[in-house]
Specification:
Elements (H helix, E strand, L loop, with lengths): L5 E5 L4 E11 L1 H4 L2 H15 L12 E13 L3 E4 L9 E9 L2 E7 L6 E3 L1 E2 L8 E6 L4 E6 L21 E4 L19 H6 L4 E8 L10 E5 L2 E2 L8 H14 L5 E7 L7 H11 L7 E2 L7 H4 L3 E5 L10 H4 L4 E2 L10 E2 L5 E4 L10 H16 L20 E5 L12 H18 L18 E4 L9 H8 L2 H8 L2
Helix pairs in contact: 8-9, 9-10
């Protein structure tokens, strides 16, 4: 028999369970139909990624209810006495938040996350729940407006303090060679669903020709599409259009030179400065981590390439762009010499058994980020006081071209659900205790195959981890 339900409140306000309802499923569904649906969803969640959808109310024949009063404080977990539903039942819970009631129906046959239904008009709060039935665990997050989730944070928020979802080889959503494709959705769809970090690899098309400024999008030595070259300029037009529609947002872009040919980092740096990233209204290229207000509506450059000599003299001799040119290769944890980037990028998963090691390294890096407490300076200090917290960049990605089980989509099918589980049940789990001073940030979490079949749960969980920082900023 399953254990009673554990509820974890990862929002900035207390919630109270007021009512439990157990609805019997109609016989046409309980005799195999609904059981088969939920069995298939469980299999899908463990082996791929499950589609997200609004909650579905199943036909019922009867229900029993119990009025309760179970308070869960912010950032606390509580082992309740709520029994899980049986195979022929659905469990409905009524939550109260400051007098406002919301209804949760679980399980849903299409997804492990669901949006709670407000029972009042014009609700002030919105909630998303992630149900992990194998652990009898339910996690509540504040629902984010994914296209503009950064608007809830103050201008003096250090960008490195935020929990930010990102994608690895972000534009590789096209038909491509095995291990080259890393994404299920296009960059515009990623942006609309909350992604705010892009990992981009480029190859200068003709570095010796001053008239040719075209940069080919690549992954390693391969182009990202079998149907013809794709170019950085087209990708940037999509990013600019998104930022114009959502001026509260920013995009952190890591750029690296890859591909074939004889181009150098110095040549790439000059092409980018002269033809792409020279507009201060579109790009933040100072060699430091910005505050959110400085970066809104812009692309923040993290460079994984060296500079030509002239660009080393930019910004009073400090260089150009946030310097991540020398992070350690294939590392479980390393800090770049600039001190601005602390990275986990262990990617040599040569056998499927090594995926567990990758999961461990990813979780350990999440814990490093969670322990940080960001400094929130006064507005007049912005120009003189740079953020002290580095970007914690955590790659959930790995591959082995020669092993089908280690291609990006196969690894993501195991890693992404494992990280969702970790974030919901264990990440910064003592955040509500006085001795646990961390903000519970995830840092920048760089993913493969998010949005596959409509599943954005990992992105939602990452953004949801900003709740404690938001609470600090607004004095809740």
């Amino acid at each position: 028999m399953s254990s009673p339900l554990i509820i974890r409140n990862l929002t900035s306000r207390p919630v109270e369970v007021k009512r439990c309802e157990y609805h019997s499923i109609a016989p046409s569904l309980s005799q195999g139909g609904f059981a088969n649906i939920t069995q298939n969803v469980t299999s899908l969640f463990r082996n791929a990624t499950s589609p997200a959808a609004p909650p579905v109310v199943e036909p019922t024949t009867s229900f029993v209810h119990e009025d309760v009063s179970i308070r869960i404080d912010p950032f606390k977990s509580l082992a309740t006495q709520i029994r899980p539903q049986s195979a022929n039942e659905t469990l409905h819970l009524i939550f109260d938040a400051e007098g406002e009631q919301h209804r949760l129906e679980t399980p849903t046959p299409t997804s492990y996350s669901t949006t709670l239904k407000p029972l009042t008009d014009n609700p002030r709060f919105n909630y998303t729940a992630v149900h992990l039935p194998e652990h009898s665990h339910l996690t509540l997050y504040s629902s984010a407006n994914l296209p503009s989730w950064m608007r809830f944070f103050k201008d003096d928020t250090p960008l490195s303090a935020l929990s930010i979802p990102g994608t690895h080889n972000s534009p590789t959503c096209h038909r491509a060679l095995p291990s080259v494709r890393c994404q299920a959705t296009s960059p515009p769809e990623q942006l609309d669903n909350g992604v705010r970090f892009f990992d981009i690899r480029v190859q200068p098309e003709a570095p010796l020709d001053p008239a040719n400024d075209r940069l080919i999008l690549v992954h390693g030595v391969f182009p990202i599409s079998l149907t013809g070259n794709k170019y950085l300029r087209d990708l940037l037009q999509e990013v600019y259009a998104f930022l114009d529609r959502n001026p509260s947002e920013t995009l952190i872009m890591s750029l690296k030179r890859e591909g074939t040919g004889n181009a150098t980092d110095a040549q790439l740096s000059r092409i980018l400065k002269d033809h792409y990233a020279g507009d201060p209204n579109r790009w933040f290229t100072a060699p430091r981590i910005p505050y959110l207000g400085e970066a809104r509506g812009k692309i923040v450059l993290i460079r994984r390439f060296g500079l030509e000599d002239a660009l080393k003299q930019e910004w009073g001799g400090a260089g150009w762009g946030i310097d991540a040119a020398n992070w350690a290769d294939n590392t479980p944890n390393a800090t770049c010499p600039s001190g601005d980037v602390c990275v986990q990028d262990f990617y040599e998963v040569l056998e499927t058994v090594n995926i567990d090691k990758k999961i461990q390294y990813s979780q350990e890096h999440l814990e490093r980020a969670a322990k940080c407490v960001c400094t929130l300076p006064a507005q007049d200090q912005l120009a003189t006081l740079p953020p002290k917290q580095p970007f914690f960049i955590n790659f959930l990605t790995a591959s082995n071209f020669w092993k089908v089980g280690c291609w990006p989509e196969k690894i993501a099918a195991k890693l992404n659900p494992a990280i969702v589980d970790f974030l919901c049940r264990k990440h910064n789990e003592s955040a509500g205790q006085p001795e646990a001073g961390g903000d519970g940030s995830t840092g920048i979490v760089v993913c493969d195959w998010v949005g596959h079949r409509g599943d954005w749960d990992l992105v939602r969980c990452i953004i949801g981890m900003n709740a404690k920082l938001e609470m600090r900023e607004h004095g809740l």
